[in-house]
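[INFO] parsing input record for Antibiotic transport system ATP-binding protein
[DEBUG] input buffer:
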Amino acid sequence: MISPPPQLDTPAVRFTQVSKRYGNTKAVDGLDLTIPQGGVVALLGPNGAGKSTTIGLLLGLMKPDSGRVELLGNDPRQPKSRQVVGAMLQDIGAPDTLRVHELIDLWSSYYELPLPLDFVLDVAGLAEIRQQKFGKLSGGQRRRVAFGIAICGNPDILVLDEPTAGLDLTSRSLLWQQVRHFARTDRTVILSTHHLEEADALADRIVLLNRGRLIADGTPEQIKAQVGGKRIRCRTRLDVALLQSMPLVADAYNEGSLTYLLTHEVEMVLRTLLALDPTLSDLDVTGVGLEEAFLRLTDQQPLIPESK
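[DEBUG] output buffer:
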């Protein structure tokens, strides 16, 4: 069993005015961020937002140009900080010739109080492939090995970088379940993902970065509320330019033969639409999702949900 960490008032993670530059590009720009112990925090942002650099600084893989990064009150580059954190990175650099159980056993040896080998293999869904060599594994199986490596040291802080990339639906569901279980033991999970439904399903808190700066911070519902309103989907003869000019419509756009409108005044907009186009059809009204909020807060073109 994963035992809970000591109860401490010290935040799991703290960034204080942290900046990191690559040449003329500021990957992280004066970041202030405090993450208390316990729960799941999703770190989101478009490409180039500074997520990878933030994770690298958090793990002590690089030094900030200015400011301070702390893991449970300590510099993440100190050896004792390495004992309290586990990381599931996209490339673990494991030798192809080692078997799965040998890899977990090797990584476990780096920690003072690792979890039992059989427990890690079971939790990560690796028991049936424990004898297989890493070089013979599929992409999804390698991701499960990476998860096993991340949790084998019984860490207080678990960092997951695109954890479900390459996983099938069953393996993805299993990993979600284990992440939730891990977080319920008062440990901290920091999740970086491009799958916004994953963040919406798992995270207690979302931290949204753009151009190296913190632009939104709150629960998934609070992030959605920053955009607010409703989304109307319909099939209409009306030109999108006309719809965009309507005073109660925040935005309007086409996707194929369907038209989408964003508004805070659904009933009034619907009355206007029906008055202007009595042939309007395929009408649907939904709340703004996390994906829509993400794209609008980062000034990107809204995406339309895939038809089912």
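[INFO] The chain is about 30% helix and 30% strand.
[INFO] shutting down worker
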